Automatic annotation (TrEMBL), chains A, B:
GO molecular function, one term: L-leucine-2-oxoglutarate transaminase activity
Signal sequence, start to end: none
Entry protein name: Branched-chain-amino-acid aminotransferase
Record flagged with keyword Transmembrane helix: no
Length: 360, 360
C-alpha cells in the first residue's frame, strides 16, 4: 500500500445545490473531485482532492482513440439519523481492478481508494440528498492519457472520483418495466470485454436501446453473443427469474458483468432458504415457463434501481406478461430488505455497509 | 451541405519539426488542428482551424464513461515534385459516418469534411515529411462531450482532425512478420461493433497482443467470435491468402472492419485478372493448404503498412511457415503499385488519389 499524502484543495465558492425533487441521474456534480495520476516511473502518484473542474487533455490522449478506460458505480445513502453509509464499496474497487486487468490498466490499491473516497464524501457531505430514495452516486473511473496514436496500452493514466446527487429511481413506488429481448445486436461475447465495466460496452448498446424504445419497451434483455439463445443481462442490470418457487439467474458465462447487487441478492435468498441457481437459461425456457404458468417473477438487479421488476417481455412475436404486470412479492421483499440495509433502516447482518463516521 | 464559414486562427509560434529519421507513429503533431461542435439545436457548427492545443472537457463528458466515439485514419503523401496526395479520402469519411451510425452519433457532411481537411493540410503543409516511406498521418475523430452519466447517446459532440508526421513503416524494406492466431480473446462478434472504427474495439485487443508478444509474434490473427474457427483480421489490418494462384480474403462477416486498402487490393487484383474471392476461410483450411503446399502467400492490408507480408503463423501447436518466411512476389507487386499510386510515382488509373493542389 502506497502511503502518499493526500493533498486537499478546497473550493472557494460552493455551487448552489439543486432541490432534492429536481434531481436526475448523473446531471449535477458536487464541489470537489478526487484525482490521481499514473506514470510508468512513479506508479500512481499525487492523490488530491480539488475543486470539481474540467480536465485538460491532449487531443491525442489515448482514451479518445482506443477507449482504454474502466469505471465503477456505487452509492452513499444518508440515513434518518444523519449518518452516511456505503454499500459494499470494497466490492466495487475489487471489480474496478478486475476490469482494469482486462483492459491492461495498472491496478490501484483498493484500501487506499476507499480511504480517498471516504475523505471526498466527508468534504462534500452536504451534497448527499435527504429525501427518501435519493442518494449520492459515486463514479470512480480511470482514463488513458498518453498522447500517442500507436495502438498499445497507455503509459499514463488518471484515476478520478466524481460525485453526483441523484433522485429516487422510483418516484411513485417500485414498478414493473417492459423489456425487449434483443435478437440482433450483441452486448458481449466470450473472450470480449463483457465481464469488465469499460466504456465501449455501453455505447455499443445504444442501437439496441433504440429498438427497445421503438417497440415501446423500457429496456433491452441481452441474449448471449454466440447463439442468441441464452439470457444474459437486462440493460445495465443482472436478471433473475422466479420459476416454481425457485430463483434462477444466468451463471457468469464470461460475457456477463458480475453485479454486486446480483451477488447480494443471491446471498440474501440463501439466507432466507429460498433455492437459488446460477446456470444457463434459454429464452425458450422462459417462454415455456410462462405458458405452463411456472414463471412467477422476473427482476433486474443493479446499483441504480436496486431491484427492477419486469412486467412484460417481448421476444420476436412472443409477448410474455409476468405476474399480471405487477411487482411480485419476492421482488418487493428483496427491494425492501436491500434498500433498508443500504439506508441503515434495517439491521445489516452481513456487514455489507460501511459507515462514513466509523474510523478505519 | 451546411455552408458555414470556416474560421482560421493561426498559431503565433511554430513548433520545431522533428527530423524525418526520428519520426515514430503518431507521436508528433502539427501546429494546427480542426475542430467543430455539435448540439441538438444547431447540428454541427462552428468549424474552425486553431493552434494544436489541449481539449478542456468536463470529467463527466460521456466519452470517458460510455466510449461513444469513432475515428478514421488516412495519410497524405508528398510526391517527388512536391505535390501532396490523399488516398481515397472520401472512403474514409464515408466509413466515419457508417461507424457513427453504429454508435448513434450524428453524421457529418462528407464533402465538407474533405474540404476542411484539405484546408488544414494546406496550412500545415510544411509538416509533411519528404523521406521515402514517410507521410502525414491524418486522424479525424468524434467524441461525445455531454457531461451526464445517464447511459444514452450524448447530445453534444466534437469532431476533430489532428495531423501527425510519421516515419516509414518499413525502415529496411518490406519484410514479413510473424502472427499469433488468437484462440481465446475475441475482437468482435456479429451484432457487436466490429464493423465500426470505434475506440472500444482497440483496447479490447491489448490482452491478445500481450499473448502474441509472449509467443514471440508481432501481431494477432483474429478468429471469429462465435466459433473461433474462421479467420477475420490481422491486428489492425485485413488479411489475404494466396492459395494456388488465387487470392482469398474473409468476406464482410459483420464483425470485420471494411478496410480501404482491402477494397483497393481487391480492385487491383481484378484489374490484373488475378482471381480474388471474398468468403469464409477457416484456420484449418490454411493449415491444410500449408501442408499440401498450396499456401503461397499471406499478407495484411491497412493504411499504416499498406501491405504487410506474413512469414509465419502460430496456431495452437501448429507453426506454419509461409513462402519460406520471405516476401512473396504478389505482396511485393501490390505494395509497389499501391505506394506508387499513393505517392504519385505511378499512374493512378482508378482516380484514387486527390491532389491537394487541385481546386475543388
Ligand atoms: C452491464 C451491467 N450489468 C449489471 C450491472 C449491475 O451491477 P451492480 O449490481 O454492481 O450495480 C451493471 C452496473 O451497474 C452493469 O453496468
Ligand atoms: C480493425 C482494423 N481492420 C482493418 C483496418 C484496415 O483498414 P484500412 O485499409 O482502411 O486502413 C483497420 C484500420 O486501419 C483497422 O483498424
Amino acid at each position: 500500500m502506497t502511503t502518499q499524502k493526500l493533498e486537499i484543495m478546497k473550493c472557494t465558492h460552493k455551487k448552489q445545490k439543486p432541490e432534492s425533487s429536481a434531481l436526475e441521474f448523473g446531471k449535477y456534480f458536487t464541489d470537489h473531485m478526487f484525482i490521481m495520476d499514473y506514470s510508468e516511473e512513479k506508479g500512481w502518484y499525487s492523490p488530491r482532492i480539488i475543486p470539481y473542474q474540467p480536465l485538460t487533455l491532449d487531443p491525442a490522449a489515448m482514451v479518445f482513440h482506443y477507449g482504454q478506460t474502466v469505471f465503477e458505480g456505487l452509492k452513499a445513502y444518508r440515513s434518518e439519523d444523519g449518518s452516511v453509509r456505503l454499500f459494499r464499496p470494497e466490492e466495487n474497487f475489487k471489480r474496478l481492478n478486475q476490469s482494469s486487468d482486462r483492459l491492461s490498466i495498472p491496478p490501484i490499491d483498493e484500501a487506499q481508494m476507499l480511504a480517498y473516497l471516504k475523505e471526498l464524501i466527508r468534504i462534500d457531505k452536504d451534497w448527499i440528498p435527504t429525501m427518501p430514495g435519493t442518494s449520492l452516486y459515486i463514479r470512480p473511473f480511470v482514463i488513458a492519457t498518453e498522447p500517442t496514436l500507436g495502438v498499445a496500452p497507455s503509459r499514463n493514466y488518471k484515476f478520478m472520483i466524481i460525485l453526483s446527487p441523484v433522485g429516487a429511481y422510483y418516484k411513485e413506488g417500485i414498478n414493473p418495466i417492459g423489456i425487449f429481448v434483443e435478437d440482433q445486436y450483441t452486448r458481449a461475447a466470450p473472450g470480449g470485454t463483457g465481464t469488465a465495466k469499460t466504456a465501449g460496452n455501453y455505447c455499443a448498446a445504444y442501437k439496441a436501446q433504440e429498438r427497445a424504445t421503438a417497440n415501446k419497451q423500457a429496456q433491452v434483455l441481452w441474449l448471449d453473443g454466440m447463439e442468441k439463445k441464452y439470457v444474459e443481462e437486462v440493460g445495465s442490470m443482472n436478471v433473475f427469474f422466479k420459476l416454481n418457487g425457485e430463483v434462477h439467474t444466468p451463471g457468469l458465462s464470461g460475457s456477463i458483468l458480475e453485479g454486486i447487487t446480483r451477488k447480494s441478492v443471491i446471498e440474501l435468498l440463501k439466507s432466507w432458504d429460498i433455492p437459488v441457481f446460477e446456470r444457463r437459461i434459454s429464452i425458450e425456457e422462459i417462454v415455456s415457463a410462462s405458458k405452463s404458468g411456472t414463471l412467477e417473477e422476473v427482476f433486474g438487479t443493479g446499483t441504480a434501481a436496486v431491484i427492477s421488476p419486469v412486467g412484460e417481455l417481448l421476444w420476436k412475436d412472443h409477448k410474455i406478461v409476468v405476474n399480471n404486470n405487477e411487482t411480485g412479492a419476492l421482488s418487493k421483499r428483496l427491494y425492501t430488505e436491500l434498500t433498508g440495509i443500504q439506508t441503515g433502516e434495517q439491521k445489516d447482518p452481513f456487514g455489507w455497509t460501511v459507515r462514513l463516521e466509523d474510523e478505519e
